[in-house]
Amino acid sequence: MAAFDPWDPAFVDDPYPAYAELRDRGRVTYYEPTDQWLVPRHADVSALLRDRRLGRTYQHRFTHEDFGRTAPPPEHEPFHTLNDHGMLDLEPPDHTRIRRLVSKAFTPRTVEQLKPYVSQLAAELVGALVAKGGGDLLTDVAEPLPVAVIAEMLGIPESDRAPLRPWSADICGMYELSPSEDTAAKAVRASNEFSSYLRELIAARRKDPGDDLISGMIAAHDEDDDRLTEQELISTAVLLLNAGHEATVNSTVNGWWALFRNQEQLAALRADHSLIPSAVEELMRYDTPLQLFERWVLDEIEIDGTTIPRGAEIAMLFGAANHDPAVFTDPERLDLTRADNPHISFSAGIHYCIGAPLARIELAASMGALLERAPTLRLAAEPERKPNFVIRGLEGLSVEVG
Q: pTM of this prediction?
């Protein structure tokens, strides 16, 4: 297992050869350093994402002690309060209720109505990049676009948006494997600050509702007059912001870095902009923004003759599944015309990404604007990978135009 090492910069830079080794080893492999069962094949990952014997949490059925786990340190409580009341880390019936209520405000029509705003903002950001002859694609286009879009949806005023990305980055640090105490302290601080800000914003929207997503979630109720609690509102807003831009930011820079390394595919895309929809899907498959997704084993399962007991943790390797040759022809090749592309970058089952339609709109808009307004876009310097493994991205992507 020497090849799989999520703390090795060489592995983080290119984990795909190690994934191939894992798939060849079998359907499941125990990894002692993280006490997890690694699942690398597409069919298994896809099935397990839908398997109700697994859960994002176990606390709806077991105490920490019953499950053989240790409760988080008390000093981490603000992060866990925020995280544990969001859809991503809940199971039915709470997950079902919250997702149903959020869906009443976060409708396909609401997302579709954002298209003109997203396109205009993408054009403005790319126009500014072109005007100065280049810059950092990460900070000039990839970050500001989805952050502005989800903030606009939530109804966060422009003057309040500067801390959103730093708060999100600090909170998301806790999703890496074995985060340090320094990472936890930053996440706790960001959780407190973000929660306090949203508590004030929610109070203001209760008094003076608007047509934003927070006002919609406050008003959302079902036939039993069930509503979101204030903590659920706060946790959902944070989840929508974090999930609503982290994957899009990283998909954008990972995608363009892949295009710069595959010039024939970039040339084909520049020659035929109708490839944008399939290009978005292929780039998300080719260099997956979320590499690993965890599940607790609530009831004993068996994978290929291996019994995995209750209380164990499964690590589903999205990046490995998205390169499985049993599903994808020549998976190590970037093919923007790939028609059959059942990637799982947006997950599957009850936790399928509620923001997937919005992410696709944003990725297509920024790609289209760059192709139209910066047809000579080229790499200015070799980028550095972020040291993170789970959330895969770059430190920056320096580009030139003209």
A: 0.94
